[in-house]
Amino acid sequence: MISGKTARDTGRRRRAEDRGIEFSLSRDGQPIYLQICARFKAAIAQGHLRPGDRVPSVRSLASELGLSRGTATLAYQLLAEEGYFEFRGAAGTFVDFRHAQRAEKRSKNPAPPAEDRSGSPSNDLRPLRLGLPALDAFPRKTWNRLVGRHSRRMDAGDLAYPDSSGHGPLRERIAAYLGVSRGIVCSPDQVFITSGHRATLNLILRTLSRPDDIFWFEEPGYLIVREFLLSNGARLQPVAVDRDGLDVAAGVESAPHAKFAIVTPANQSPLGVMMSLERRQQLLRWAGAGERWIIEDDYDSEYRYNRRPPASLKSLDADERVLYTGSFSKVLYPGLRLSYLVVPSHEMGRFSQSSRLIDAGGPILHQAVIADFMQQGHFARHLKKMRGLYAQRRQMFADALHHVFGDRLDIISPAAGLHIVARPIGYSASDVAIAAQAQKMDLGLQALSPWHMGADPASGLLLGFTNVADAGEALKLASMMRDACGAAST
Ligand SMILES: Cc1ncc(COP(=O)(O)O)c(C=O)c1O
Q: For 460-483, what is each residue's pLDDT tens digit?
């Protein structure tokens, strides 16, 4: 039953298909066809093969493993008899839905996704998860049409190494968009495309920072950036945020020798406060007085619901001390992993050089698609639509919270951004305990206090409302939250 070829190949590890199923066949002991059965069963149990997946044909498995076709056929017949495989004639052989689903359920034990300290895995889709745009409202059809067109049109240039600073047409569209919407005068050469906000910060650190540089960091401030900077050896000085934004005088007092201030002036993360004009001017004066840099994180300034978005800090930057960062994560979708940085014209050379050193640039397909999406007016239309949708969903969820909690919950964030900050009143449990209880109930909300570095954190709950689709769901989620507050406090 084992061909001569099999005997030669005995013991070698071989990949059956590109699904990560590996066969390690041994000549000793169990017959080969049973070993094949066992490998397929294990692949199904571990979730590498799922119900409905097509498996290699008998002929290609036999050739891949150097077996006779008879051996492979025998294994497949046995797997079909036991209900693991289904033969569908010319369409091929598939993992059977019924049996495999049961087997998968019984023995699948997936590793939990990596969690950040906020208790929220990065691929979390649970209700009230922070920071996601409305995934049901993304214009997939238009987007996919543009993706299809670009894929079909691919020419030699698209196959070569890209520009490490980003795709030229997208840098042009970003510069034009920022000029009109954010009052930023810049050339496309000043725009650097990156694979996310941390990649943007990495580029800044590599270009301008030295170990032990001190950063003013908003208190409370964006948890992920805090951990990123600390892991890169930066020294962070927490600087309080009040109703006017970062308290610049407090920063000067506590860390006069800081080299960077990293701020979210349009929509403070996570409190939603807008930095006042006076504070902006103070901050710019501080930076202009020395070799200091302001990193303006303008991640979702587009979303302010009862007034026009504020001008960017960069638009007031006469001394060219502001490094402006933006992202497509909130205005399109975060799975894109595309963000950008605008650098002062006198720093373009240094940034180009370090972007070349860091890597050879990102894939251009989606960059080209975004450029067209912007140029053809879809981007502006999408933003306008989302502003209306989020204003409505925010109101709906706030109404549901009022209805369910009455005066036992205070909404403390303004009508902006993609989440609400709310403070439960009269519950004995901490925000961390409430969030942990809510997460057990499959809600994705987060506690506010871990976003502080200092000893006396404010308490609250961060509630992403953008995917709450209707009033019924809003009421259901608000009731679950009330149950979580109650259960955590008993
Ligand atoms: C404060 C803040 N800055 C920037 C970003 C954008 O990060 P990225 O572009 O890596 O998705 C986010 C996303 O949640 C954010 O909350």
A: 999 999 999 999 999 999 999 999
Q: How far apart are CA 260 and CA 293, in angstroms?
A: 5
Q: Which atom of ligand 1 lies at the shortest distance from residue 269's CA?
A: 1
Please tell me the distance from the alpha carbon of residue 94 to that of residue 17, in angstroms, as a whole number: 14
Residue nearest to atom 3 of ligand 1 (CA): 299
pLDDT at 106 over 80: no
**Whole-angstrom distance, CA of residue 119 vs CA of residue 140:** 30
pTM of the model: 0.81
**pLDDT digits over 331-368, tens only?**
999 999 999 999 999 999 999 999 999 988 999 999 99
How many angstroms is it from 299 CA to the middle of ligand 1? 6
Instruction: Give the position of tokens 């298909």.
Output: 17
Strands 13-15 and 22-24: antiparallel
**Which domains does the chain carry?**
4-107 (1.10.10.10), 138-378 (3.40.640.10), 381-489 (3.90.1150.10)
Lowest-pLDDT range, 58-67, 373-382, 416-425? 58-67
Q: Is 131 in the pocket of ligand 1 (CB under 6 A)?
A: yes
Close Cβ partners of 224 (under 8 Å, ≥ 6 residues apart)? 116, 198
Provide the percentage of residues in the chain whose pLDDT is more than 90.
71
